[in-house]
Specification:
This protein has 13 helices and no strands. It is mainly α. Helices cover 82% and strands 0% of the residues.
Amino acid sequence: MKALNSDEIDVEGGKLEKDREKIIRSSKMVKIHNQALFSGLAYCISSCGMILVNKYILSGYDFNAGISLMLYQNFVSVVIVSLLSLFGVITTEPLTWRLIRVWFPVNIIFVGMLITSMLSLKYINVAMVTVLKNVTNVITAVGEMYLFSKQHDNRVWAALFLMIISAISGGITDLSFHAVGYAWQIVNCFLTASYSLTLRRVMDTAKQVTKSGNLNEFSMVLLNNTLSLPLGVLLIFTFKEVDYLSKTPLLRMPTFWFVITFSGFLGLAISFTSMWFLHQTGATTYSLVGSLNKIPLSIAGILLFHVPTSVENSASIFFGLVAGVFFARAKMQERY
């Protein structure tokens, strides 16, 4: 057998090292792609699931206490985040009076946003809710222009115009049109846009009064949900939901408690999975997937809840969903 000289050994060793590096690089790429795929699926499932489960609770069970549902879901979130923070799984900022004073105004908008979302979802089908929510983008864009002097290009305004047309045509052709539901949804659009615009200013101030000088997503979840509890209790008594809760047989059903508790877990899952997905991909992919996610959500909403629809209404819904995707792409191109 021919003996290998030192040069041949070095060459062979170099090839083995290169092959090893290729294998490591390819395995890392597969891992990254898998992480992005799993995080994206988790985000889509949790965000779709939350809306569908809430619709099922409010319409399927005919539960007429949307504020109480919001309060219970937020309570579940507070308990879970507090436990995770206690065991060191996540880090959260301590709730100080200075931080509460800064955050409380935006929390009032946050609570109003959640409650009006519940109230509109009870009366409007899921597909139309997703289309009408596009109006929030229009209000936010106008608010950015006047409050922050931010200019948008023609592609963004074209997409926003398409959203308005689809919302109007969808409302006109909606066979299950409900004036109360549409009124609550319009209020929700204004509150959601206000929350988005106000949050940008409040976050900078809030960071200055925290001990670490930072405010992560988990701290915001804990802060928002904790502050919403006393406000929610006050609203339950104000709108006399206590009387309804004392009489409804739903609270004596274990399956009902399971469903509303599950909805609380889903609400928190949206916060966790959105952070995970955003970290694995980026703002561009996150925004586009969020828009594309409305398409299966709308179809599922129509099929699961047997929503009466027409060709005209279906076309308006599809038109609105496409406008949402077009808006996401326009915003991406505007960034670069």
